[in-house]
Amino acid sequence: MLRLSEMEFLPQLKIGWLNGWLLLFILYAGFGVLLLVFPRAVVKRLYERNGRTRAYYVRRALGVPIVLGAIGLFVLLPLKLGAWPLWVGLGIYLLGLGIFNAALINYRNTPLDRPVTEGAYRYSRNPQLVGLLAAFMGTAVAVGSWLMVALAALMSVGVHARILAEERACLAQYGDAYQAYMARVPRYFGLPREPSPTDPPARQQPAR
Q1: Residue 206 falls within a domain, yes or no?
Q2: Is residue 190 part of a domain?
Q3: Which of 41, 91, 117, 168 has the fewest CB atoms within 10 Å, i.e. is most exposed?
Q4: Which of 91, 163, 174, 169 is nearest to 128 (CA)?
């Protein structure tokens, strides 16, 4: 039986190897390796800033201290060894890590003149960010801290703003093809919907 008492608002802080930072290091180290082996054009596309409004940058500026503070606390929060939060958190973390890396590979394998719609993108229009959030939430649970769970949930507000900006950019770039994709696939996660006669026709893009 799960005991909620094994989750605390903020557990005792201490420096150690088996702290929350270890999970984040694995996440970002893997991301860095993928960026190094991806073609430069794919990396450039990944960091395009089209569709981002002033409101997006305001939210981002407000969110940066939250993210940095959360990472700093993860450095000092030990993993809940031998308790259920560790195993539940690791499950959520590994799911997020898998979605994030699969989405990056799908992104890399899609021609630059087409929207990414295969693999993880068949079930989410934004699987990279969904996977990233899940990995952060899993880490928050694995250290057994309600405060970190709340901070991870708060980060989703900034992620939502980024998602809206990226979808605007994709819609402007790919037009009807992306509009039809948006009509079929949920923004965050779910089963794809069968195309409807009322959906906008998908514009064919030439292969590169």
Answers
A1: no
A2: no
A3: 41
A4: 163
